[in-house]
Amino acid sequence: MSARKNEHSVHFKPAENFRARAQAVVDDPFLRQSFRGAMDFLMQKRAAQFPDSAELESLRSLGESIRQYNLARLPELLVQLEDKLTGNGIRVHWAQTPSEANAIILGIIQAHGAHKMVKGKSMVSEEIELNHAAQAAGIEALESDMGEYIVQLAEEKPSHIIMPAIHKTKEEIARLFADKVPGVRYTDNVDALIQIGREVLRQKFMEAQIGLSGVNFAVAESGTLCLVENEGNGRMCTTVPAIHIAVTGIEKVVEKLEHLPPLLSLLTRSATGQNISTYFNMISSPRQPGEKDGPEEVHLVLLDNGRSQAYADEQLRKTLQCIRCGACMNHCPVYARIGGHAYGTTYPGPIGQILSPHLLGLEAAGGLTTASSLCGACGEVCPVKIPIPELLMRLRAENFSAPHPNAALSDQGAGHSILQSSIWKIWAGLYRSPQLYRLASWLISRFAWLTPAHQAGWSKVRTPLQPAKQRLRDRLRARGAAQQ
């Protein structure tokens, strides 16, 4: 997926050219080997963290219950969260769309006369394409997560929600640093590359007036923003600059602090195979009198962007249980072979296939729901038991069924075809009527030579269908006559 340098448009059509992008990766043996090796490594690390299958299933059930409990009370919890945050001195903003979220964030920056922003890892900021909006407004927005920093230098999108630069080799990163970072010579020593990134970012932390972060969980009872990370850049972004802006989706709220430990255990062990992350930040207010660090102002932007659509439907609401661990991607046989860029969406892989239709609409993302083998691996490893295959089937049905009023999803029926619908109706009619089925099967067996060699999408990756010259019914009848 190519980067957009001089435009800001979040409503693109990710399903367009999906097959071409996927084919390009499949045809590249080095990329395929790299993705396969990375996914195998992550699967092994996760498996090592859950040696007791009974303990894993118990923890998954607890995680599912916690997420469903909080989602069931989401409207009132959001009100409670706003009240607590406001009482703590954190300013809360609500955004219905990406453009509204960007306008709020840029408005805060411009109100302070700022022009430099450092960003901790935030998939929601990728979702709203904040970097492009900031660039258009003349504001420097620098990613401080090492993976995000690498893909920003390369003018690419993250290919994984946990490891954004997983598609890059150390040699590619070395060339990138040598080309894009002033005064840096080529080196493919990993420790040296990390040190180069650290030196650049340390200076930027001191210069930036604005620090932006995501939010893993927001606790309603205490008004606390929780941030999980490994590199420490999130802590720098939320403490060094004078202004801290956090941005998150409305589904990330939980009622109580006691709900966090099971979710954190599931998140870190499922995402990176760690017992616990290196840093766990809890932010409840701006800097208080007598405190030596922390921002003077803290803002939280709560983004909807289609989440309320998913929430309104009891089945589709399960999509919002996601804690963004990426385990479904790591275990998906499709993602493991084509990587994240082929999908063309902020959230690739199985979770992106069920989330993107709500963010972008079925017209843009509905085609991605068929980019799945429905093997069920994603649902089996999801730490909060999101039934991803079940949701994919529902979204496929919504996409290809005839449009109807009061549909649960925007662009419902976007993939509907009168021709395909008619073919399936004829097929169903034949199977309902024994007489018609016998007649059709007789005709097909007698005129099998008329079967076309090219059968649309079927024969692109499969052997063309060729009807038998004799029906099973006729063969059994002939055998019976011969035996008599």
Describe this structure in words.
By secondary structure, this protein is α/β, with parallel strands linked by helices. The chain has 23 helices and ten strands. It has helices spanning 18-26, 29-49, 53-72, 74-88, 98-111, 123-127, 130-136, 146-153, 170-180, 190-207, 233-239, 260-271, 307-312, 327-331, 335-338, 349-360, 362-365, 377-381, 388-400, 418-432, 434-446, 458-461, 472-483; strands spanning 91-95, 116-119, 140-143, 210-213, 217-219, 224-229, 243-249, 253-254, 279-283, 297-303. A six-stranded parallel β-sheet has the order 1-10-7-4-2-3, with helices on both faces. It starts with 17 loop residues before the first helix and ends with a helix.
Secondary-structure map:
Elements: H1 18-26, H2 29-49, H3 53-72, H4 74-88, E1 91-95, H5 98-111, E2 116-119, H6 123-127, H7 130-136, E3 140-143, H8 146-153, H9 170-180, H10 190-207, E4 210-213, E5 217-219, E6 224-229, H11 233-239, E7 243-249, E8 253-254, H12 260-271, E9 279-283, E10 297-303, H13 307-312, H14 327-331, H15 335-338, H16 349-360, H17 362-365, H18 377-381, H19 388-400, H20 418-432, H21 434-446, H22 458-461, H23 472-483
Parallel strand pairs: 1-10, 2-3, 2-4, 4-7, 5-8, 7-10
Antiparallel strand pairs: 5-6, 6-9
